[in-house]
Amino acid sequence: MRRILFILTLVSVLGMTGCVGNVQKSGGNQADDSDSSRLSTEELTGAFSEEDLIFVLDGVEYPLNSDAAPLILAFGEDYELTSAPSCAYIGEDKWFDYSFGSVSTYPMDDKDLIDEIYFYDGDYTTRRGIGIGSTLTEIKEKYGEDGFEQDGMWIYVLSGDISDLQSPKLYFELTDDVVSGISYYAASNVQ
Questions:
Q1: 181: Cβ–Cβ under 8 A, 6 or more apart, which residues?
Q2: What is the pLDDT of residues 27-51, one digit of tens each?
Q3: Which among 40, 54, 60, 96 has the fewest CB atoms less than 10 Å away?
């Protein structure tokens, strides 16, 4: 189901920008999947801020709009790569699909920059300790009530305006008020 939602979202976004076509797929190499802790080490408090949009893995920070290569290396080479000509930039947008989620990128200055980090499995958490299986009540306790409910998701928008399509967002996909997916989204391809 999540894979279908991801594909529908991908097709929808590309379709809106007129860039469906010439999508290429390739597999990554198999890598040893270590069982190291995925929990964020520094828990944030206070109002939702830009710091909440930094994904932390094993103590290393991966901000949105930064070079994706270190994050792809940290997640490992066991991915399926999909790419398509970018509608907003020169080069290719890429999607690295893992068994637990995905990383989408956009091209800039000969690098692939992080546009979205999405996970629906594993013990990855936000910097406020929210992960798969957390409840909507726990989200509101950690982030406050200033989020927005939309299409089965609870969303925090950096600008505070849900209609601001260009503002970075933190999405919590919910199934019966329980987190089933988390997306850090830079909104870099929205123009």
A1: 2, 101, 118, 119, 120, 132, 171, 172, 173
A2: 443 333 333 344 444 578 899 999 9
A3: 60
The 10 Å CB-count burial string (b at 16+, else e) for 117-152 is: bbbbeeebbbbbebbbebebebbeebbeeebeeeee
pLDDT at 42: 59
- pLDDT tens digits along 11-30: 344 444 445 444 444 444 33
User: How far is residue 167 from each of residues 157, 182, 184, 188, measured CA to CA in Å?
Assistant: 6, 17, 11, 9
Cα 15 versus chain centre, distance? 20
Q: Which pTM was predicted? A: 0.81
